[in-house]
Amino acid sequence: MKKLKESRKGRLAILCLLVTVLLIASLPLTSCNEVREEPALLGYIDESGEWVIEPRFTRAEPFSDNGLAMASEISGRLDFGIINVSGEWVIEPGGGNNLLAPPRFSSGLIAMRAYEAPSTFLWGYVDETGSWVIEPQFKEVGNFAENGLAMAKEGEVGPNGETRGYGFIDVTGNWVIEPTFSFCGTFKPNGLALARAFDSGGLYGYIDETGSWVIEPQFSNTSGFDSSANGIIAVEDPETKLWGIIDETGSWVIEPRFKGAVHFAENGLARLIDEETRLFGYIDTTCSWVIEPQFQGARNFVTFNDGTSLAPVKENNRWGCIDETGEWVIQPTFGEIYPFGENGLAFACKRNSDRYGYIDRNGEWVIKPQFSNDRTNRSDDFNFSNGLAVARPY
Predict the structure, then answer these.
(1) What are the tens digits of pLDDT across the range 294-327?
(2) Of 10, 34, 172, 228, which residue is most buried, by most CB within 10 angstroms?
(3) What are phi and psi of 21, to 5 degrees?
(4) CA dihedral (212, 218, 223, 229) positive or negative
């Protein structure tokens, strides 16, 4: 009798196992490598939160000062075009051509990389109709600066066996500063460009529009004058690996003493973390604490046209905004606040929420939270430009 019961239990177990197998087999097959659902498409909103350009892009960048933005409607390919503020194609995407971001017409030209033979992966410049003005021939290029010069990189070896690298071309594609540098940046409004010589031991300095050194190569890294709002920048000392601050002549404003790059805002204050407490505060150019370290997180100050400045800071896991004295202007009640744009709006979300909108300088909602903070295929710049901002529906 006992064996009969055991036999019945065994058959029941086998039956249950078969039913389980059949149920599993009836489920749809999935794969660990299955592609996740793509995020919502990108579009552009105005300062009231209304869609001006409906979401239709797989990739979108903020508008430049000239009213143009780089965008793509094709998923999975580097195939970009340029749109205007109405969402119309100024240069249609096609042929897999890639554009330099941000897309900036200067002297009527914009950089484009060709993906089609015989100029595969080489850069040149097109006009506003998309026609080649400077044929694809460079390994790297930059946007034309105000002085009409653009950084460009030629082949590694010249026609006579000489080492070639980075230099600067004019709008005809001719070399103005021969490609004799191992690296060059774009010229800034102060007339200086970051450069590195082949024989400088990997150190950086700054050249003028003739290619002459204004600040001799002596730094192992630099924040660049494009990140400066007051003519001073952070540079790294190659021996100590500490960062200091120099002016446009290369003179020290603050001797090397920081473990990382320090960026001074237009109001002369820089965010800095205290090594002992690991809390953030703000220093001035004498390296004195103006706002003592007290915040879990902090972002740079933004100065408005009326001369006032605000910086988002984090206290007790909540974000608010302080002024230059460290006083609260917007109480710390938000889940996150990004730096303010020139129009006085900041991308923000409520606490315990991942829906984002825009607040004003008083912390009031101007555009209700309704957008995603997903950065996939978009820049981290959530501010408005030409009255429009890139947005992704939640």
Answers:
(1) 999 999 999 999 999 999 999 999 999 999 999 9
(2) 228
(3) -60, -45
(4) negative
* DSSP H or E run through 113: strand 110-113
Which stretches does DSSP call E strand in 185-232? Answer: 193-197, 204-207, 213-219, 221-222
Residues 10-28: pLDDT tens digits? 554 544 444 444 443 443 4
Q: Please compute, for residue 127, the number of CA atoms within 13 A of its CA located in the half-sphere on the CB side.
A: 7
Q: Where are the domains of the chain?
A: 105-219
- The residue among 113, 132, 128 whose CA lies nearest residue 68 is 128
Q: DSSP letters along 68-88, please?
A: -EEEE--TTS---EEE-TTS-
8 Å CB contact between 208 and 214:
yes
Q: How far apart are CA 139 and CA 172, in angstroms?
A: 17
Q: Is 342 left (phi over 0), alpha (psi -120 to 50) or beta?
A: alpha
Per-residue CA distances from 312 to 70, 339, 363 (Å) = 29, 6, 11
Tell me the whole-structure pTM to 2 decimals. 0.81
Q: Which two tokens stand for residue 70?
A: 């780089």
- Whole-number Cα distances in Å, 19 to 10, 15, 22: 14, 6, 5
Residue with tokens 């080649």: 132
For residue 291, the tally of other CB atoms under 10 A from its CB is 24
Structure-block tokens of residue 97 = 């051509």
Tell me if residue 151 falls in helix, strand or coil. Answer: strand
Cβ proximity of 89 and 83 under 8 Å: yes
Question: What is d(CA 90, CA 314) in angstroms, rounded to the nearest whole number?
Answer: 42
